[in-house]
């Protein structure tokens, strides 16, 4: 066997002969050094041809790869792990006994220093014991150029311990993402890190010249909590409660697909999430795109409280149509109704 500092094996670091088919050699090389090695079969006094050279880098610090690649190169790496949570959901409906999203911290989840909990731990609050949160192998991770959403630059499938990595050569912004649609093994569950109720979880990574490492972790909570998709066919209001007497949280335009987490007892209203806010939409406004059987049932929501207020005096001249008002105060002062939307600041309409 031979180990050298160059692929031509002119600068030999160590060499020798062994009768073992497995051999450990102690060698001393500078940190970040690249070492080339090869072996040669021997039978009696006859030697075979040397094998094709292989190589490794003594990566004693995270920036070692820049010696071999580019001073501007950066390593993006992390792992995808199963986050053990208690029925993770984006919100907790009133009267329903489920927990909010996981808290990432000791004794399970992701530690403050960014390391994953690898051993079983006890929840200090409930006393429940959680199994080790191990990496998930076989998950397809995408890399795209520029801020999220972006894919198409590279792709990596996580190895046995859930790790992945990308090597990029130029400073700037990159998008690291995982699409549940590309990973059929991820069945019922939710992304907890970064937290989202969508199929795609993503993070924008940015770095400057001289940076050498960026890390991004992804947490997946596999559970039996059922979530379905609902296709909105009629432009509708998502309201604070399960009746049209409740005020609108936002307007949802026709053609949008939203997640649904629960329904009321007579299956006339769905509970959903819009811009991070819980709200309720009439089932008559669209149709479920998945089987709604098994959806959690939420209790009847409290009736809206109507408070009589003295209308504010508008600083704008009185206009003929409610749609002409551009601010909430002037709209409400003239007896019109102001509606908040997901796409902009809102609009004024006739009551």
What features would you highlight for this structure?
351 residues, mainly beta, Immunoglobulin-like, SH3 type barrels, 4 domains, six-stranded mixed β-sheet, 28 strands, 3% helix, 37% strand
Q: In words, what does this structure look like?
A:
- About 13% of the residues have low confidence.
- This protein has two helices and 28 strands.
- It folds into four domains: 56 residues, no CATH class; 149 residues, Immunoglobulins (Immunoglobulin-like), CATH 2.60.40; 70 residues, SH3 Domains (SH3 type barrels, Roll), CATH 2.30.30; 42 residues, no CATH class.
- Strands 7, 12, 14, 15, 17 and 18 form a six-stranded mixed sheet that branches. Strands 19, 22, 23, 24, 25 and 26 form a six-stranded mixed sheet that branches. A four-stranded antiparallel sheet has the order 2-1-3-6, with no helix packed on it.
- It is mostly beta strands.
- Helix content is 3%, strand content 37%.
Distance between the termini: 87 Å
CATH homology-level superfamily of the largest domain: Immunoglobulins
Might you state the CATH topology name of the largest domain?
Immunoglobulin-like
Q: What percentage of the residues does DSSP assign to strands (E)?
A: 35-45%
Report low-confidence residues grouped into runs of 5 or more.
86-101, 103-120, 122-131
Helix content bin: under 10%
| Overall 3D form | elongated
Number of separate strands: 28
Radius of gyration: 29 Å
CATH class of the largest domain: Mainly Beta
Count of DSSP-assigned helices: 2
CATH architecture tag of the largest domain: Sandwich
Q: List SSEs in N-to-C order.
A: EEEEEEHEEEEEEEEEEEEEEEEEEEEHEE
The main pleated sheet reads as: 6 strands, mixed
| Main structural class | mainly beta
Mean pLDDT: 75
Number of domains: 4
